[in-house]
Amino acid sequence: MTKLKTTSLPPIVNTTWRQFNRYKVFIFLIVVAGVYGYILLQINSLSNAQPSPEQVSAQSSPVRTAHIDKTVVLQLQRLQDNSVNVQALFDTARNNPFQE
Fold first, then answer.
1. Tens digit of each residue's pLDDT, the chain (100 residues)
2. How far apart are CA 91 and CA 75, in angstroms?
3. Based on the structure, what is the number of domains in the chain?
4. Which domain holds residue 98?
């Protein structure tokens, strides 16, 4: 086994650095392609993942029905009976509920 002397170290580093400079663009492209490929694989695996039944049941909540107070319903019916303009509004809203 050869012993490295501190005087022989700079020429070794210098030749290694020259070899690295020759291939630095190629090494950079390989590293970028590797990172890009890894990101694509992660995106593909995460986009195809299915939720577990526990996750589905945790996210799904029972549907609540709208609760309308009976006094409000009676008041609206009284208003509808008393005013011609309100009757027209109720009729148009009943016929086309998505038009404002």
1. 566 666 666 777 778 878 888 888 899 999 999 999 999 999 998 888 888 888 887 777 766 777 888 998 888 888 777 777 766 777 777 777 777 6
2. 17
3. 2
4. 68-100
